[in-house]
Structures are given as structure tokens and as C-alpha cells.
Amino acid sequence: MMCIKQIFSRTHRLKVGQVLGAAFTSSRCFHGEQQVSRESSALPIIHHSRYVCDLPPNHRFPMGKFPRVLHFLIKDQVITEEQVWVPEIASKELLSCVHTEEYLNDFFNGKINEQEQRRTGFPWSEGIVRRCRYETGGTVLAAEVALQRGLACSTAGGTHHAFPSYGSGYCLLNDLAVAAKYLMGVSSHKRKILIVDLDVHQGDGTAFIFKEEPCVFTFSVHCGKNFPLHKQQSDLDISLDDGMEDKEYLSTVETHLPLLLETFRPDLVLYDAGVDPHWEDELGRLRLTDQGLYQRDLYVMKTVVSRGVPVAAVIGGGYSRDDDKLALRHSILHRAATQVWRDCGM
């Protein structure tokens, strides 16, 4: 595996911020409640305090990780509060570009039966509806801002198991699909979007939604013997064996990503940077380290933005009983993105 520092040496850096700014500057409004100054030169971070909701005691889903990601980024001086963009709640109209009217009506109004709740892993509540809508709004805003700035990261997102008419696997609304569909629809030409999904679980909902959409390419690198049991067919699926470690994993990503960028030529990349390939993850079966995750995220984002293609990144899956340890692991994405922002002169 080639050294990332060799690939992106200081003498060959691109001023991608200038390229992207010229290509994607737009006067239309963003889906945000509150925006940082357009003159701000720092990496945009998308966050909302309502990315969380109450769950029953001892619930397995680590809801507390979302505010802690932002906490550690500020505490460790990776970012400042001035970098934070606050998304609007996703409207029913926006969500309907992916999800069926019947499902949205049932989801919004609490008509989700017990069997359907078991499939999602969540008991229904008004709070869970609200948080999922804000999370989806955050991914849409990250994609919008990335088109103008070149790179943006949310502190949530990556709910890739949600299908048009039902939720599954802790995913109730498919934020990646909504962002992709929305941004394809509002451009003067139909944007081509590459979804790079490196969560340890296959993005089955996203694959299903875009199986007949030539302007979206779904690329999933996942553990073959993990959830979901019945996989969908992405445009490119890379099924990994249990126990894979950093070197082989990174080599796999490096083998495929550059070729996809050259052949598909996307206008935008949506990157699901799930940390559940980590060796300590409760629901993963791979053996990546913190450093492996950092090198992965650094490689993906540098490879894309150095070609003049904007990236919107979400944190994806990650499971631990220790919210602080998990939040720090998720913050690897934003730390790597900050490095990319500096190195690429954005």
C-alpha cells in the first residue's frame, strides 16, 4: 500500500477550494436555520442539538454519542463554534422524494405497529420522528454546503438501511438517499452522485432505492457475514471477511475508489464514514484501529477533493456502551477532514 503522504505531497497540492468555489457558488438559500459567515475559511460542521431523543433505559442504540462528538471537537480545539451550521428540520415534502406517502403518514403520526418497531430497533415516539428529520436535514445541508465549499461534515447521518416504505436496523429515514435525490432534482443538469459507504454493514436501503438510477452509483465495502442477512445489490459491493485489519482494508479501498472516480465522474460524493469496522465495535466483525480509520477517512476525502469533486461526509454506524469513547472514535472523521481542508488549501 502506497503511503498517503507520498500520494499527496506538499509539492503537488491542489487549491481545490478555488476550483470548487468557481464551479459551485450559488445564490440560492441553504436548508439551514443558522449559517456561518460565507467569508469563513474553516471546515463547515453540520450539527443540531435535536439530533438526539429519549430512549428506554439500557437501549442498545448509543443516542448520547451525537452531542459528544461536537463536544470533543470543540474541547480538543479541532473546530470552533463559529464553524457550526445548524440544519432545518426535513419537511415531509423533502422526504417524499424517497419515501412513500403512506410510510411518512404512518411514521409522522405514530401508526407504526409493534412488528415494524422491532424491525427498526426503536419504539415509536414524537422525539424519534423529530430527531430523524433533523438528522436528514443535516445531511442535506452538508451536501449543499459541500457543493459550495468543497467539503462538509455532519455529526450524524448515514441511515442507509431505511427503505422507501419501511425502516430497518436503527434507520427510519434514508438521509443519504434524500440528499442525493434532492440535489439531483434542483440542478440545471441532473447531478451524478457517488455514494461511498464504508460502514461495516451493507447500505441495503440505499442500494435498493437507486438500483435503477444511472445518475447515482452506490459503492459499499462491508463485512459479508454481518447485518443485513439478505443483501441488496449495490452498483459495486465489496464483501469483506471477518477479522480484516487496517492494511488489507485500506488496500481494498485504494484499489477501487480512484477507478470509480475516473469512470463514473461524479459531481458530488456522499461519504458514509461508519466507525463500526473498528476492532472494539459491538456490532462489527472487522479489526480496524483508530489509526486505520483515520487513514481511511484521510485517503477517501483527499482522493476525492484533489480531483475537484466535493464531499459531504456523515458519521455512519458505531456501537459501544461508552458514549465518550464512541464519540471520540466518530470524531476521527472530522479530524481527518480538518487535515484535508488544510492540506488541499481549501
UniProtKB/TrEMBL annotation:
It comes from Pagothenia borchgrevinki. InterPro entries: HDAC_classIV, HDACs, His_deacetylse_dom, His_deacetylse_dom_sf, Ureohydrolase_dom_sf. It comes from the Eukaryota. The keyword Transcription does not apply. The keyword Hydrolase applies. GO terms for molecular function: hydrolase activity. Keywords: Hydrolase. Residues 59-323 form the Histone deacetylase domain. SUPFAM superfamilies: Arginase/deacetylase (SSF52768). This is Histone deacetylase domain-containing protein. The lineage of its organism: Eukaryota, Metazoa, Chordata, Craniata, Vertebrata. It holds the Pfam family Hist_deacetyl.
